[in-house]
Amino acid sequence: MKQRCNWAQNGNQLLKDYHDTEWGVPTTTSQQLFELLTLEAFQSGLSWQLILNKRENFKQAFDNFDFEKIAHYDNDKIISLMHNSGIIRNKRKIIATINNAKIMQTKFPNNQFSEYVWSFTGNHTIIHHYASSESIPKYDQLALIVSKQLKKAGFAYAGPVTTYSFLQAAGIINDHQINCFKK
């Protein structure tokens, strides 16, 4: 049996697959990064398993995370999303997603968001060596810096905890545990 990070070891297959194929893998397209940032914002206060279970619904509801389309969502679309039981129906998070899409479109065109977030590490993955998921901090100095800059750019739901989770998911930070086969 493969040894995984504690948080994925006893999870369902969807969580294991996410751990094995996506989490911590360097992501370099702005659209994929926008998807991860959006999902992490919706996950805030909830479980990642819940978000994974609804991920396909999110993709459908939010036009496959095409931030150029999402930037043009209007009040009717917000109302429609609030009635979509397949996603997390949190109006503040929905509005934040639209706001973030507008920021992506206006301030980071042509894959510049990828260049921007990777610039904080000099385009290298930061590799930590934690023995257990309990050892991993909720956020670190890098997350504080990136969070502050994202907020300065106008992003919503980009606090240090959400930002740290985003950096992990995007492979900018590799927090696979030392005994994990993905390390």
From the N-terminal CA to the C-terminal CA, the straight-line distance is 16 Å
Count of helix runs:
10
* Gross geometry: globular
CATH architecture: Orthogonal Bundle
Largest sheet, in brief, is: 2 strands, parallel
Alpha carbon gyration radius: 16 Å
Instruction: Give the tally of β-strands.
Output: 2
Uncertain residue segments: none
Order of adjacent strands in the largest pleated sheet: 1-2
Residues in helix, % = 55-70%
Q: Specify the structural class.
A: mainly alpha
CATH homologous superfamily caption: Hypothetical protein, domain 2
**The CATH C-level class name:** Mainly Alpha
CATH fold-level topology: Endonuclease III, domain 1
Strand residues, percent: under 5%
Tell me which oligomeric state these chains represent: single chain
Could you name the key traits of this structure?
mainly alpha, single chain, two-stranded parallel sheet, 183 residues, Endonuclease III, domain 1, globular, 2 strands, DNA-3-methyladenine glycosylase I
